[in-house]
Amino acid sequence: MNPGPITGGCQCGAVRYALHVDAVEKPHVCHCRMCQRATGGVFAALAGCAKKNLEWTKGAPALFQSSSLAKRGYCRDCGTPLSFAYDLPEARVYVTIGSLDDPELAAIEIQYGVESKLSWVEFCEDVEQKRTGGTPEEAQFFADMKSNQG
């Protein structure tokens, strides 16, 4: 059990955060095209907590409304991707695992968006994999989503 808080921030140090939790929730990677474009990588690695448990302790991230459903936070000075959250009060906020001071605290438990997983990406093959909108409820949630990515 981590004594908390769990901390992290951007590469230039302009934005820092603390997660006031004993452990991050639902650490995962997402292979969807939106996450690929948002991070400039082959997937996004994210770990979450309730929104009330995230505190920006130095600076604040700039926010990009990446779709009609969610915002992504990043450092306006160095560009480090920092967070992702759906625009729902009860939704979790997720920070990028690579921005954690100790990323070992966030071993992934599931892979999302595997319909967009690149054919040459092979890692954590024993971790559960899930397609975006794979259940009727999820498909309904994403049905009217509009991407704001160029």
The shape, in one word, is globular
| Quaternary structure state of the chains depicted | single chain
Determine the CATH superfamily: glutathione-dependent formaldehyde- activating enzyme (gfa)
- Look at the structure and give the mean pLDDT: 92
Number-wise, the strands total: 11
Describe the overall structure.
The protein is mainly beta and 150 residues long. The protein has a single domain (6-143), classed as glutathione-dependent formaldehyde- activating enzyme (gfa). Helices cover 10% and strands 34% of the residues. The chain contains two helices and eleven strands. It has helices at 33-39, 136-143; strands spanning 6-9, 16-19, 25-30, 44-50, 54-58, 62-64, 70-74, 81-86, 92-96, 110-112, 128-130. Strands 6-7-8-9-4-3-10-11 form an eight-stranded mixed beta sheet. The protein has a three-stranded antiparallel beta sheet with strand order 1-2-5, with no helix packed on it. A hairpin with a 5-residue loop joins strand 6 and strand 7 (70-74). The radius of gyration is 15 Å and the shape is globular. The N and C termini lie far apart (42 Å).
Question: What is this entry, summarized?
Answer:
The chain is mainly beta and 150 residues long. It contains 2 helices and 11 strands, in the order βββαββββββββα.
List the helices and strands and how they pair.
Blueprint: E1 6-9, E2 16-19, E3 25-30, H1 33-39, E4 44-50, E5 54-58, E6 62-64, E7 70-74, E8 81-86, E9 92-96, E10 110-112, E11 128-130, H2 136-143
Parallel strand pairs: 3-10, 10-11
Antiparallel strand pairs: 1-2, 2-5, 3-4, 4-9, 6-7, 7-8, 8-9
